[in-house]
Model the fold of this input.
Amino acid sequence: MNDKSEGRGKVTDIIETRGLTRSYGEICALKPLDLLVPEGEWLSVMGHSGSGKSTLLNLLGGLDRPSGGSLWLGGEDLMALSQDGLARFRREFVGIIFQQHHLVPYLTALENVMMAQYFHSVPDEAEACSALERVGLGKRLKNRPGELSGGEQQRVCIARAIINSPRLLLGDEPTGNLDHANTRMIMELLKDLREEERFTIMLVTHNREVAAWGDRIICLDDGVLVREERTGR
Amino acid sequence: MISALKLMPVLLAWSGIAAALVRHVSGRRSVLAISCASGFIGGVAGGNLLLTLSKGEIVSSTVKSLTGTCFLCLWVVALAAFYRVTGSGGQGAPGEREKPYAFTVSCSALLAGLLAGAICVCRLAPQGGAPLLSLFVLGTAGVLLAVAAIGIEQYVPADITVTGEALLALVVSLLLFASSFTLQLDLFSPLSMKVMKFVHDFVHQFFESMLVPDHLFFRSDAWEYIGYLFGSGVGFWGGLLIWFAPVVLICAAIRLERLPTVSHIRQGAQRRKLLAAFIRERNCRLIVPCFAMLIMAAAVYNSLFPSVEYWDPKPVAVTMNDSGEIVIPKKGEIDLEDGKLHKYLLKQGGREARFMILSAPDGRLTVTLDACAICKPEGYGQAEGAVICYYCKTLIPLETMGRPGGCNPVPVPFKVGADGVSLDAMTILDRWSETVTTTSRIKGGGK
Done:
């Protein structure tokens, strides 16, 4: 947890960035960004393509290293972590839902969830079944991703993301490929899970309706935080 | 220089023992270092003194017996560990293992040092009487290596923990490894020989005495299968089984430890994390006994392929004279009284026999066949203070050469005259045929 004595954010801030930047050669994808996210908040990140949304998400998920600034997650300085430390951090602290699901095509839904358990600690089939039942896939355990609809695949992805009880759930346009009905179903599922598990959610989207499910919306444009608003939820 | 090279693996094994012991004790490394050092010096000094007084025999057998006793202790501890895990109730997660008192480990270090020191001195001078300078260098090297090993041990990853059983396995395996470099102390060859003898005696007693060879229900081809029990592999494989079984049991005991109870933890990820940590710790505890197994395998290799070069001269062809005698001059091209083994080959009328002449330490000449009454006739080689049967690796002290029985070479009647040694050719040929026929009667031959 963050330390007040160093002049940083409140002790309850799970995400804290100070002058966080990410450049790819000449291109500056993320310009110095200061951001505080309290524990338990649902933050929606909006912006056009190339605005730096996914770059920010990759940095917060420990999938990428910042070019500058500081990044604290759950009191841990990500800049100071080694590759092994970063891997441990990812498997214990973060759950990620991708737009393209990234499920292993030759594994069943159950095996895809158990694989996340395996990389975290040890697989537990009963617990994986229970996670899939929670996302409404109790009867599709043995189906491979190719035998599931887009919405169902995204629910497997959510089960995989929450199976290791992360403190921070990151979603990179999780409903980008879904129709309206499926989008609503996924968002309601995330809302219910958040109430049960009390994790922090950070969702990247360019859909205003999806962003409105969050407590707060921030907008990025050309790597700069241009607007911030409360949704009133 | 050659002595130093000879002793290097034994000394390294000793430093390994010191490092293993210090891993198992909390704090007080200096006490352990002192125990190791004093034990080793005591072992070197005491061993040399006894070797000088007893001419080697008693010390070798005592050190061998002590090493054997350690091996038996390992068996008992391994069985107890296995029973504790698999017996009624079983053993749950070990939780926080308590490390033993420094006093207990220091006593073990002292004893291990004594034994290691004695093994080293037996390797240095099996017949005793090593120069004082060599002993001083050996003692200093042993102490320095032990202290260095205790220092280096701090850099071994903390994950590699040692249970009491694994520690004993490692220490005993290192002692066995150190012993395997000295013929008189090697335990694997006598073990495999005992197994072979036990199996053969049992088969003889059981099938021949109890079932009678012509038993109605025994078809003759059944004996073909029984014959496998007489093969040369029986002793080797049986020996290997007894050799490795305690360490395998210890590994199994660690592997079969019950997982900790985690049902009270609500969060699945936390539950699994705890289980994963336990499994990882359990796997790490397997490293030491697995390493001990490798060392024991090295000891077996040393035993099977000793680095000692036996004196094994090519048999000199001899012929009988008109009166049917073979006369071998005492002095001449070959000096029969030089204390070395001399082999001869007699070929006569399609028959042949190998025999040996050796001057025993007390000065008497002995003439024996290059075969014993019980083993396959693979012959003998001469090592320091003994001849060794190539088949069963039994060491025959030079003092007992010329005496019949056991694995001693079969004695042959001879006369010593002024010219040399006279032997009756037909007697040698007959005795060789008789011996070889007996020992090759059963498939595989020998014991």
About this structure: Residues 57-86 of chain B form the longest helix (30 residues). Chain B touches chain A at residues 267-273, 275-277, 279 (CB under 8 Å).
